[in-house]
Amino acid sequence: MLKFENLTIGYNRHPAVHHLNATISEGDFIALIGPNGAGKSTLLKTILGHVLPLEGKVLFNNISKTEISYLPQSSAVDRKFPISAEQFVATGLWHESGPFQRITKEQREKIHHALRRVGMHGFEKRPINALSGGQFQRVLFARKLIQNARLLLLDEPFAAVDEQTIEDLMKVLIELHNSGATIVAVVHNLELVRKYFPKTMILSRELIGFGLTAEVITTENLARASSIGFGDVKADICEVSHHA
Amino acid sequence: MLEILTGPFAEFLFMKRALLGTLMLSISTAPIGVFLMLRRMSLTGDAMSHAILPGAAIGFLFAGLSVTAMTIGGLIAGSLVVLLSGVAARQTDTAEDSSLAAFYLTSLAIGVMIISMSGSNVDLMNVLFGSTLALDNTALILLFIICAITLLTLAVFYRPLVMECIDADFLKSISRYGAAAHYGFLILVVLNLVSGFHAMGTLMSVGLMILPATVARFWVKQLEPLILLSVLLAFIACVSGLLFSYYVSVPTSPTIITSLGAAYFVSVLFGLNNGIVTQWLIRTRKHLSA
Q1: pLDDT tens profile A111-153
Q2: Hey, of A12, A46, A70, which one would you mutate to test binding to chain B, going by the most B CBs within 10 A of its CB?
Q3: From the list B168, B177, B226, which residue is nearest A99 (CB)?
Q4: Which residue in the set B173, B177, B221 is minimally distant from A127, CB to CB?
Q5: Which end of chain A has the smaller Cβ count within 10 Å, N or C?
């Protein structure tokens, strides 16, 4: 579905990930882990096309951009904006409604159904600034549900969220996976990764490991990831030009 | 009593014109202010309103107090600043608010210098505080055109604009409207500041944009009521400002802004959402019932 070829990515010519070669296949359910600043979010944004690769490329096979759905870190959303949960979820219908068309009755049904599935029944009219962190994360998932995407990219969906919410939302993700979606999620909690995610990719400025979770999450790999991740941050500003 | 409110408008054509002008201005500028506020760009609006001044001043230099010349000058200067501040924010590490302050103080100074070079103090007052009571046909037509453009554009870009405010990354992940909505919106800000400039002057025009939204936020929670209430507040302030300045003979635009300021003061204390006294009352009531 996706192939990274010698991909080097970063911001302002500071590479975050070097020379990544990997393939994501249809139906994969992948946890993306690594220390802070390892380039996990940047990788997702590169897939979306928001960040252009410094070197190498992302090849799309048999999937179009409209079939990818993205769940931003909830800190990237302006939660003070005066809009209801229902209206917020409706923004996920963009590919159907476009910028102009009004929301139809069936679409409204769909929105309510999605909110029910994430356990937010009865919160339709609630302004998003009156929701707790966990509740808002559920609303973000509801929006994801109505997008009908084939590839789901999630940036820290379980950060600052309570246990119950994690469990409920994990169930939703598993359902989506069972109905054919390919999922890549940035996750910090290793316990969660071991329990639910069949595959894991460890990034820390380079690909540390990628494959079956049990084989990839080893003490050795984790030690390597954290030593590189926290190591010489400044040293590799010009590394791209060395290789170029 | 009714006579006091309607008399001046019935009797004098200049009051009718001022009423029509400020009505159109309220309808187009207040919704823009709501979005500026929600995007935490109130100060940007302020800076842009000052940045228009040198352009309008150059127009003044060539053609005197001509609506057309000053509009063209203002539009060019405003659009230039939109582009430049975008570039400056991306290319330098200067904190955004300090570079905005640099921008608007300099523009204000240059504008005042240019006008003083070729005009009188009366001209200067005219540019800084507007000529609400002297709107001619050209100015009214301009206000109408800008009002129409604003409403149409808002209607078309409403959804992308809202989405860009809440969740820009998500909008970017599903469409290319983000950039169009962003720059389209900034152009609307410039247009409305230029039309506000004619009626309210460069120092006061941004007040009619930002203050109604700020006041409305204390009373309603949803976006659509917020927009409607802002328009209503802006227009009420204009009418009361016009009447007050008619009876007491003080300049109109400061009077309009002062009445909005009074509304803000009342709202800070007694507003339903987060008013200081309101919150205090809620706390004591809880305390008593507990």
Answers
A1: 888 888 888 888 888 888 888 888 888 898 888 888 888 888 9
A2: A70
A3: B177
A4: B221
A5: C
Which residues lie below 8 Å from residue A226, measured CB to CB, with a gap of 6+? A35, A204
CA A95 to chain centre: 19
Q: Please, which pLDDT band fits residue A163 given cuts at 50, 70 and 90?
A: confident
Query: Are A84 and B163 an interchain contact pair (Cβ–Cβ within 8 Å)?
Result: no
User: Looking at residues B215-239, what average pLDDT do you find?
Assistant: 93
Q: Is B156 on the interface with A (CB under 8 A)?
A: yes
Interface test with B, best of A78, A89, A103 (most B CBs within 10 A): A78
Q: For the sheet with A14-24, list strands across it.
A: A14-24, A2-11, A55-60
Pick the CATH number of B2-289 from 1.10.287.3510, 1.20.1050.10, 1.10.3470.10, 3.30.2350.10: 1.10.3470.10
- Nearest CB among B163, B177, B222 relative to A82 is that of B222
Question: Which residues of B are less than 8 Å from A48 in CB distance?
Answer: 172-173
Rounded to whole angstroms, how far apart are CA atoms B250 and B179? 43
Listed by start position, the domains of chain B span 2-289
Q: Which two tokens stand for residue B242?
A: 């016009």
The number of residues in chain B equals: 290
Q: Does B172 touch chain A (CB under 8 A)?
A: yes
- Strands, sheet with A182-186, edge to edge from the N-terminal-most edge strand: A68-71, A151-154, A182-186, A29-33, A199-203, A207-212
Domains, chain A, in order of start with CATH, read 2-63+150-243 (3.40.50.300), 78-148 (no CATH)
CA atoms of A182 and A29, how far apart (whole Å): 6
- Please give the C-alpha separations between residue A53 and each of A16, A72, B91, in angstroms, as whole numbers: 11, 20, 20
ipTM of predicted complex: 0.73
Q: Is B154 helix (H, G, I), strand (E, B) or coil?
A: helix
- Which residue in A has a C-alpha nearest to residue B177's C-alpha? A99
Q: B101: pLDDT confidence band, cut at 50, 70 and 90?
A: confident
Distance from CA of A134 to the nearest CA of B (A): 18
Closest residue by Cα to residue B73 from B252, B193, B180, B208 = B193
